[in-house]
């Protein structure tokens, strides 16, 4: 499992056991990785599941919002955390 700059797991849970995390810490990753990790995490969840994503890449705010719009996911909350960091709360959309 990949670690953040602080040594924490990017995704909590255990993917080998099929346990998906409900939060992603993508701070330190640059475009397009935050959007790609978010898309992958949403694809692993059931429709209606919530995912919290924290990222600090300046383009993440645009990329993740666009990902949600075209993927049919609902952005429930966007919170600026200071600097370029932002936290998204996303509800996964229905299956295509």
From TrEMBL:
Keywords: Transferase. GO terms for molecular function: transferase activity. It comes from the Bacteria. InterPro entries: TusA-like, TusA-like_sf. CDD domains: SirA_YedF_YeeD. Residues 24-48 form the UPF0033 domain. Signal peptide: none annotated. This is tRNA 2-thiouridine synthesizing protein A.
């Amino acid at each position: 499992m990949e670690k953040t700059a602080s040594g924490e797991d990017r995704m909590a849970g255990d993917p080998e056991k099929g346990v998906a995390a409900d939060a992603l810490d993508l701070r330190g990753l640059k475009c397009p990785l935050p959007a790609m990790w978010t898309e992958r995490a949403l694809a692993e969840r059931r429709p209606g599941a919530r995912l919290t994503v924290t990222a600090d890449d300046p383009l993440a705010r645009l990329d993740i919002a666009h990902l949600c719009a075209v993927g049919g996911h609902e952005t429930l909350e966007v919170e600026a955390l200071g600097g370029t960091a932002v936290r998204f709360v996303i509800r996964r959309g229905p299956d295509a």
